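Hi V.,

You were right to ask for the full record rather than a summary. Here it is.
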Amino acid sequence: MSQRLAELQAKDLSRLKLMMGKVLESDVNKVRRALQKKEESRVLDIACGAAHEAEALTDFLADLKGSGGAKIKFTGIDIRAREISDAQRTFGKRKVDHLNGVEKEFEFLTGDATRLNGHGQLGEDFDLVFLRHQNFWNGKKTWEEIFDHALSKLGDEGRLVITSYFDKEHELALEAIQRLGGKLICTEANLESRELPTPGKSIDRHVAVFQREPGPGCCSLNPLVAYEPGLSDFLDEKNLSAGQNFVSRL
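Predicted structure:
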C-alpha cells in the first residue's frame, strides 16, 4: 500500500469514528450503561476483508465504555481467505494499550456470511455488529440473508452499524433491514466522505445504526424472506447494472 493511500484510509477511519458517534448520539447513554455491565465487549465485523477498520472499531467501543481496563474482543469474518490472512498478519491476536489500559483481542475467520450459524465458535450476544460498504444491489437475496444473520448476532442492547457507498443502495439496505426486524435508530450522510472515481460513490457515504426489534418477527434466519413491495421494486435496470459493476471494497 502506498503512503498516500495509507494516509487517505487513516482519514477515512477518523471520519468513520466521528460518524459512528453521531448516529449513536441519541442513545449513547443506554449503550454505554450496557457496555459497562460487561467485563468484555464484543465486536463482529461481517465481510470484513482485510479489516482496515478493526482498530477504529475497538477504539470506538473502548472510548464509549469510558472506563479503564476495558477488554474488547474483535471478530472478523470474510469468505476471502487471502483477505483474512492479511488481517491476521496486520493485527495478530492480542494487543494491550498500556497508556489507556485497554486489552484487545483479535480473531479472523474464513467463512460465508450467509451461514454464520455454521461457525459455532462465534456465539451471539455481540455489542456491535458492523457491515462496511454493504453491497445490497449486487445480490438482494444474499444480502437479506446476511442482514438477517447480523441482527441475530446482536445482544439485547447490541447495535448493528452499516455503511454504504451509494445513496440508492443505502435506501435499499435500510428498507431491507427494517423489514427483517431491525429498528432504525439513526441514519446520517457523511458530508466529508471521500469521493471515488465512480460518480455518486464515496467512502462511508452513509452510516446507519439499528437495534433488534423484540418479538417473533425479527431474525427469522429463513433465506426465503417474505416478499413485500418496496423501494427495490422501483430500482431501474440502469442503476442496478451500475451498482453491480462497482462492488469492490477498498
